[in-house]
Each structure stands twice: as C-alpha cells, then as structure tokens.
Amino acid sequence: WMAQLALLGGLLVVMPFWLRRLWNAAPLAPGPLRDMIVGTAAEVRLHVREILVWNTGGQVANAAVAGFWSPVRYVFFSDRLLDMMNAQEVRAVLLHEAAHVRRRHLSLRSR
User: Which residues contact 8 (CB under 8 A, 6 or more apart)?
Assistant: First the structure.
C-alpha cells in the first residue's frame, strides 16, 4: 500500500503539468484581464502557479483548476470562454473555481 500511496502522490503532483501539455495551454497574456484575474485570486487567497488559456480552437467554453498544492496548481480558461464572456463573468468563473479548491472538491474526486 505504501508503493500505491507513493504512486498516487506522484501522479497528483504530475497531473497538472500533464494536463497543461495535453490541453495545449499557454499563459494568459499580460493585460487588464490577467491583472483582474490575478487580483481576484489574491483577494480570495487562491494561490496558483499560473493562469492558463486552454486552446480548444473555439470548441469548448469551460474552465478548470488542477493541482492540490499551489506550487503545482493551474487555473485553465478555455479560449472560447474568454472570447464570449466579459471581465465580470470571467471573475465569477474564477470565484467558482476558487470555491472548488476551498471546498476540497479536488480531493473528493480522487477518491
């Protein structure tokens, strides 16, 4: 069971990096939207490694958070979501994702 626990721990650390590559995600460009997202994350004490744009070719409107610990935590916003929402709507989506972290929904999904 110790080997399984070590394997699970390793996967939890590696998974956000894997998703970043799998989803072809890149850092959100500097600008007012990024500043608002970073500021909102700081307000609610959501510590993340990076804010990423999930390149779906405009096919998916969604957001996600991946990573249990802040040094390996990413927040993903799909390209379509960013194109169709204004800054206040994106802020609401970020707060929704922050609630998942605060309520430990990530750990519940892994069980």
Answer: 110
Residues 8 and 37: their CA atoms lie apart, in Å, by 31
Rounded to the nearest 5°, which phi and psi values hold at 59? -90, -20
Strand order across the beta sheet in which 74-78 lies: 25-27, 50-54, 74-78, 63-66
d(CA 90, CA 24): 20
Over residues 36-71, the pLDDT tens digits come to 999 999 999 999 999 999 999 999 999 999 988 888
In degrees rounded to 5, what are phi and psi of residue 77? Answer: -120, 125
Residue 105 and residue 80: Cα distance in Å, rounded?
25
Decide: helix, strand or coil at residue 26.
strand
Asked if residues 52 and 25 have their Cβ atoms less than 8 Å apart, the reply is yes
Q: Which residues contact 1 (CB under 8 A, 6 or more apart)?
A: none
